[in-house]
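Dear colleague,

Following up on Tuesday's group meeting, I ran the structure prediction for the two-component complex that the binding team flagged. I've pasted the input sequences exactly as they went in, so you can double-check that nothing got truncated or mislabelled along the way. The structure tokens for the whole assembly follow below. Feel free to forward this to whoever is handling the docking comparison.

Inputs:
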Amino acid sequence: MSEKVDPKRRKALLITSGVMGAVTVAGFAVPFLSAWNPSEKAKAMGGSVKFDLTKLDAGAMAVVEWRRTPIFIVHQTEQAKQNLPKLNEKMVDPALEEGLLRSANDKFSVLKGVCTHLSCAPKYHPEIEPKAWDQEWLGGFFCPCHGSKFDLAGRVYKGVPAPVNLEVPPHTFEGDTLIIGDAV
Amino acid sequence: MSDKKNSFMSWLDRRLPVTENLERHLTKHPVPKKVNFFYIFGALLMVVFMVQVVTGIWLMMFYTNTEEGAFASVEYIMRDVDYGWLMRYMHSTGASAFFLLMYFHMFRGLLYGSYQKPKELVWLFGCFLLFLLMAEGFLGYVLPWGQMSYWAANVILSLFGAIPFIGPDLQVWIQGDYVLSGITLSRFFALHVVVVPLLMIALVVFHIFALHEVGAGNPEGVDIEKHRDEKGMPLDGAPFHPYKTFSALPAIGIFFIVFFAIVFFAPTGGGYFIEKPNFEEADFLKTPEHIAPVWYYAPFYSILRAVTFGIPFLGITSKFLGFIIFAASIAILFVVPWLDRSNVQSIRYKGIYSKVAMVLFAASFVTLGYLGTKPVNEMRTLIAQICTVFYFAPFILMPIYTKYEKTKEVPDRL
């Protein structure tokens, strides 16, 4: 066997084996990282939910579970609908392009009951009266964890920790039935 | 090396360097003769780490890592397993003790310059250990699957969701579900009992090997290597064993008296060690009225909450900025060795600015800790914001004040 070292050949071999090794590691990382994705079962659990709107009186709110998240369904009163535009000035994002109730319907608002700050559950306070957190309260949601305020359409007030409006989940109305989740 | 060539030790030493390493790390490893009580926390941390490993293994024998079974299995450990309550309360109290000792240990480092050249790596490994401990504590707190386990984890995981662009997908990937669920619980279990502890053990080894390479410090900041006797032992040093090992024993005894007093008489620490809502099973439709972290995360949680504003023109929300500053409050510790420009190590010989800075830092850390366990209001938010500034200022201004302040001369001998 020759004692002579061919540096060029050695370098080529080093690079080739290094690249092959890296590709192997990256290849094997795929199944291990993919295993952390939602499983087929978890995906199936995320299907849509139906709700009968005739059960809900004006001014009342129902909580429905979808993808384990509480969904707030609010039947807005006439007074609430009149008050909502008055609050536009106080809102971070008045969301005028989304319509008065930010909903596909002019009676009901459908909101994710999860504070956009740190995922607490905002509490429903529809009464129009001075509150500890707001002397001119016109009804809405108040998050007891960190003091975020939202109006009845889930729009966030200025100067609170929550950065954006309460999320509106994908939803459709079919007569008196509300379907929450992606249309099938 | 053993003198008798045919003895068992010499047989062993030729195959495994036992004697050499015992001498190097124990019986001939010099440590400063005079240190103060701040120097005991490293030893106590090792003890607590062992307590956590042993009680953790035993808890694992009875715990069920599923959404349906987790909470019930913890009840089972508490009620049906012989001494199960002891294992669990030692583990939960051990977590609090781990953090308390860690905070004192690191504050010692800040006071006496234990991060200065050539001890930068010792400090860095220690900072990584703090980070891992925080991850380990968080993961472990989710496992009992109580109300606070669930909702506090939601708060933390939503921080990942706040990262621009990749956030929501990243959160779903970490959770393995569209919401925090049993799928998340199972993977957190694997991380808590295998991945993070393995990394911690590796880092402890690095931490100690690096320390033994550069030598332990002392409150005076005197270099003991300068003056040695004829055998090469530093005049101001003593062998680690038996001097330090035996002097640590009374401290370990006192520590265990306090530790078991808590385990036996106040294991929940009035809701600070184990929070009251955690005695109720996780309910994903019912958020507790007030989500507070365990005391050891409270200072950092306060910093997170203190950020009530974003940078709109950069598209950074207040939530994401809070996350960045929260992360920075840990990250800034890593760079301390390169922020300190002082020509002395110990606070005893540093100038007035360093002393004021350390007092401000400690006071703001404690105040932030207090605020972190309380519900927010305007006044508390304002105080938290001021304390956040005082938390960062001692580090950010460190390159300036340590360079220009007047220091005292360090004595030659300890």
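Residues 147 and 160 of chain A are 7 Å apart (CA to CA).

Cheers,
M.
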